[in-house]
Amino acid sequence: MAGNRTFTMIKPDATGAGHTGKIIDKIIEAGFSIKAMKWAQLSTSQAQEFYAVHSERPFYGELVEYMTSAPIVAAILEKDNAVEDFRTLIGATKPEEAAEGTIRKMFATSIAANAVHGSDSDDNAKIEGEFHFASTEVTA
Ligand code: UDP
Ligand code: MG
């Protein structure tokens, strides 16, 4: 059975462009409830660890640089079928492939600066949520 929580970050391009509130509105309108949320500046080592799965990819260095270029908003979200439904809400990684009405279609500016992160599995949602939040920072 699919889990009911996922993890997201609003990325530096979107926080820097003033889109944070609009993106949070879209998330809530889509039926997700916020279980934890914070505004934070990632350090280089945090960004390297968060994206360690991509460490061999050619874009890794730029991705780490980008993710530390301005603050992010990290959040744990709850909804039935959270991981899959959130990936649908954000749209494809490449903004030109993102469906009409998706968050990336509306706010992404490039494949790297694509406005939001969404976990790709229940296991990663848990790992990523625990990376950013202590259990005392997450509501029931
Ligand atoms: N990324 C990039 N260049 C690429 C592929 C990915 O800069 O060719 C960045 C982009 O910000 C993406 C992140 O790396 O969101 C993680 O990539 P992934 O394939 O996991 O995409 P996502 O799950 O975010 O859609
Ligand atoms: Mg991914």
Q: What's the number of domains?
A: 1
Under CATH at level 1, the class stands as Alpha Beta
Q: What is the succession of H and E elements?
A: EHHEHHEHHEH
Structural class determined from secondary elements: alpha+beta
* Biggest β-sheet description: 4 strands, antiparallel
Q: Rg to the nearest angstrom?
A: 14 Å
- Enumerate how many helices there are, as a single number: 7
Proportion in helices: 25-40%
Low-confidence stretches: none
Mean pLDDT: 98
Could you name the CATH homologous superfamily? Nucleoside diphosphate kinase-like domain
Strand coverage percent: 15-25%
Using the alpha-carbon principal axes, give the shape. globular
Q: For the terminal residues, how far apart are their CA atoms?
A: 20 Å
CATH architecture annotation name: 2-Layer Sandwich
* CATH T-level topology: Alpha-Beta Plaits
Helix/strand layout:
Layout: E1 5-10, H1 12-16, H2 20-29, E2 33-40, H3 44-50, H4 60-67, E3 72-78, H5 82-90, H6 103-107, E4 116-118, H7 122-132
Antiparallel strand pairs: 1-3, 1-4, 2-3
Bound molecules: uridine-5'-diphosphate (UDP) and magnesium ion.
Q: Can you tag this structure with a few keywords?
A:
Alpha-Beta Plaits; 17% strand; alpha+beta; 140 residues; binds uridine-5'-diphosphate; four-stranded antiparallel beta sheet
Description:
The chain is an alpha+beta fold and 140 residues long. It has a single domain (5-135), classed as Alpha-Beta Plaits, CATH 3.30.70. The protein has helices at 12-16, 20-29, 44-50, 60-67, 82-90, 103-107, 122-132, and strands spanning 5-10, 33-40, 72-78, 116-118. A four-stranded antiparallel beta sheet has the order 2-3-1-4. The two termini are 20 Å apart. The protein binds uridine-5'-diphosphate and magnesium ion. Uridine-5'-diphosphate is lined by residues 59, 63, 93, 111-112, 114, 117, 120.
